[in-house]
Specification:
four-stranded antiparallel beta sheet; alpha/beta; six-stranded mixed beta sheet; 6 helices
Amino acid sequence: MNIKAEDLSIVYKKKARSIKVLEAVSFAPAAGEVTVITGRSGSGKTTLINIMAGLLAPTEGRVYYDDMPVYQTDDERLSAFRNLNIGYIPQCSSALSGLDTLQNILLPSVLAGIDKTEEAEKLISAMRLEGLKNACPDELSGGELRRLAAARALINSPSVIFADEPTNDLDDENAALILGMLKAQAQNGAAVIIVTHDSAALAYADRVYTMDGGKLIAKENEHEDTLCRCYVS
């Protein structure tokens, strides 16, 4: 799937002020690659991936998935497309309190009318959540909720994965687990876009950008040759 953002800008108005968060950003993450975006808090990283994921309309600019213009597509069709084709790991917990771990992970597949119970069981094992399958979100730690969110993002084998600070709340071992699984998804053909402050993610990146003042700037990835290859396939 080809993804393309053209001249994305977003402006927030606060009384007499206009705050430009993104400024004419064009971006085309590639299938089969991990793209890492770094930058200070407030630089526009999360705003960019929210726009590209179809969650936040830009003030100006366009986003295309193949020939589908995201913000000229009706909500019902866009929601169905996003559920099947886009995985999103949010920065904050978004587990539904009335569902247990297995049900939360299965939710995108249930909405799509697909039985993915076997895949969910494998993800629970891969994410080291065995024994917590029937636990409610308020029984899970921050790191366990992060791994649950990653499993849910992967349940429909999406073509595109956006990960917003996916290693927050994780120790080094579990951070490597999540980053390795994201790398494996890219090797299976997905476009993976990671927004992070975690320098460990650079070792998994094929391309690196930084956000600065609402602008996206390509960087050389000096860590690429040191990639740990012990990720989960």
